[in-house]
Amino acid sequence: MENASKALIIAGSILLAVLIVAMGVTIFNKARGAASTESLDAAEIDMFNKKFDKYLTGNSGRGILGSQVKTMLSSAISNANTNQDEPSKLPAIKLEGGTEITGGQTAEANLQNYINSISNMKNDIISKNNYRVTADYGTSGLIVKIIIEQI
Question: Which of 23, 93, 111, 116 has a beta carbon 3.0–4.6 Å from 101's, enabling a disulfide?
């Protein structure tokens, strides 16, 4: 009888130790996963994308006027000035049949080239024409490229 109660106590102790180790491993994995994600949370990504989402037409529909595209490009310039220290928030912009502006500019000279290139692209947009605007998203859900195509 005495041996049976000792065996139950030992079995309970082993079970408790296994549970504690399992909880520790789970907590460690969750903490490591949180540390390895990008520095942007979902709300920041959503706020950033909203600046451009209102101009996106997708692959269907009539598109938007060139004047709206110019407004979007002005917003991209404003975004570049605001987020100059966060290259992940500087999307590439491509005008089909024209130039492509590389995003992620970090150095001051490259940032100025990025902004100047967007300004030049604005001059290539014809206000009366219709354009289709689509976006490519990165793995985090952040817009990494904006594609402008004349319809």
Answer: 93
CB atoms within 10 A of CB 132: 20
Together in a domain, 76 and 129: yes
Instruction: Return d(Cα 7, Cα 19) in angstroms, integer.
Output: 18
Domain residues for 47? 42-150
User: Please, which residues have CB within 8 angstroms of residue 141's CB and are 6 or more apart in sequence?
Assistant: 42, 45, 49
Write down the pTM of the prediction.
0.66
- As a residue count, the chain comes to 151
Cβ atoms of residues 53 and 60 within 8 Å? no
Note the pLDDT tens digit of each residue in 14-69: 999 998 999 988 888 777 655 444 556 788 888 888 888 888 876 666 788 889 99
Report the C-alpha gap between 119 and 123 in whole angstroms. Answer: 7
Q: Dihedral sign, CA of 53, 54, 58, 64?
A: negative
Q: Do 22 and 72 fall into the same domain? A: no
